[in-house]
Amino acid sequence: MGAYILRRLLLMIPTLFGIMAISFVVIQFAPGGPVERVLAQLSGQGGDAGDRLSGGGSPDAGVTANPGGGAGAETSSRYRGAQGLDPDFIKRLEVQFGFDKPPLERFLNMLWDYARFDFGQSYFRDISVLDLIIEKMPVSVSLGLWITLISYAISIPLGIRKAVKDGSAFDVWTSGVVIVGYAIPGFLFAILLMVLFAGGSFFDWFPLRGLTSENWEQLSWPARILDYFWHLTLPLTAMVLSAFATTTLLTKNSFLDEIRKQYVVTARAKGLSERRVLYGHVFRNAMLIIIAGFPGAFISAFFTGSLLIENIFSLDGLGLLGFRSVLDRDYPVVFANLYIMSLIGLFIGLVSDLTYTKIDPRIDFDRRDV
């Protein structure tokens, strides 16, 4: 097992390298960038963009635009919106954002910094990238944890019931509900919930944004808990619609596979009740794969569910942070977010595999042929 763990850890290095390299190349060909964003704001707002550099401070050398100069035409072919600006101003912007270096050098420097978990400063926020991610992470972790727990709480009893009633009317219509729920995009259902229950065209029962109310600090602890779940109701409902489908069908098929085995026939022949057979023998074996998949289910909900839902309900988590960072061309935040999420995903994958081996000793990755 030690050799397998070491092999998986070593494979994370080229995997991370490939993820970061592909993303870096895509960014190089994407239109726009932090320099162009500042230039666009300068052209449209008379220099307000300069105040956003370095998180609200002025540019490093106090550069100023030269609207009357003609030298800016030299840079117009490289940056849109650079006409009429002093070339020195453009160069200092490039130095400010690190674009004075070749792409390969910037990429290698980024990898070296990330290997030491040095993610630098945000381009447009007065905070380090790591502190910013740590600040936003609790919201996304909260959503991922709750959606995983709720989906398991629904999926396991429903899957067991469907296995016991396999082929019945209950099994057929619940399968239809599960499939339809899985097919409906979560963001579309979230918008529907907002229209129906968040002050749209019908009812105004739930808040439209955030995880807590503005007066949350003044509330008592029981009131804070109720307020927290009041804000979570619509986001979790939108996310849980499709989250429990896979686990439900997996639970059903796992129980069906165990029910058809010889030890179940023997237990029934000994006169054990159906409930004793189901929960005393079948349950332990059928739930192995479900329990072992919990880490993967959590990280899946953490990754896939947060982006659109956080944006729709204005939840200040990693999904909303990543979305706004892409729009702002805040590349340190974008790449650091990608790096940390990829690293967490790779480690959770390893933890999931190790969980399988602990729960089911018959699984041994060291004995397989590779």
Number of helices: 15
Beta-strand percentage range: under 5%
CATH topology (fold) name of the largest domain? MetI-like fold
- Categorize the overall geometry: globular
What is the CATH architecture term of the largest domain? Orthogonal Bundle
Radius of gyration: 27 Å
How would a textbook summarize the main sheet? Answer: none
Write the element-wise H/E pattern from the N-terminal end onward: HHHHHHHHHHHHHHH
| The CATH H-level homologous superfamily of the largest domain | MetI-like
What's the number of domains?
Answer: 2
Helix % is 55-70%
Coarse structural class: mainly alpha
Number of strands: 0
The top-level CATH class of the largest domain is Mainly Alpha
Distance between the termini: 14 Å
Low-pLDDT ranges = 45-77
Structure at a glance:
This protein is mostly helical. The chain has helices spanning 2-29, 34-45, 87-97, 103-115, 129-164, 169-183, 186-197, 221-259, 262-269, 274-286, 288-292, 294-304, 306-312, 318-328, 331-359. The chain folds into 2 domains: 34-115, no CATH class; 129-367, MetI-like fold, CATH 1.10.3720.
